[in-house]
Amino acid sequence: MPHVTVDYSPGLAGTFDRHAFAAALHTLVVEAAGSQGTCKVFFRAATETYVMGSEDEGTPVAHVEVALLPGRSEGTLARLSAKVLELLRTHLGPGAGGDGIGCGVVCSVEVRPLAAYSLYPTRLTARAGAALRSWTRSGRRSRASGAARGARCRAGR
Q1: Class of domain 3-113 as given by CATH
Q2: Which stretches within the chain are classed as H helix?
């Protein structure tokens, strides 16, 4: 269920292996944060980026934001942030400058809990889906659909 947004400078587009990063990030987030479900990863190449106050304002930038359902400790969020930063640097590629592991690129990561979250469509278990179909055909709620609703609530959907 994690939502990930990756913003990066346009100059990194040719060297940043986004697909490999997304695949490795999914595994990392699921293991490190105890998350379930699928990561939704959005990549956005910025039209312009600047590192103001530095000697070279044209320094490339990559920023990752990971948003998780609430309930993780600050320590878990901090450890995940450090691991994502390390992973990001390894996927930026040799064209990113320096030693080929993201040197020369300003990298940052924010891992935060979601404040409010809504999802559509929700995934239903097979039993819940069958109960819902039964309820909609009959025009009234059956015992099965009540059980299915409870199953969805317990599953966090």
Answers
A1: alpha beta
A2: 18-33, 74-91, 126-138, 143-154
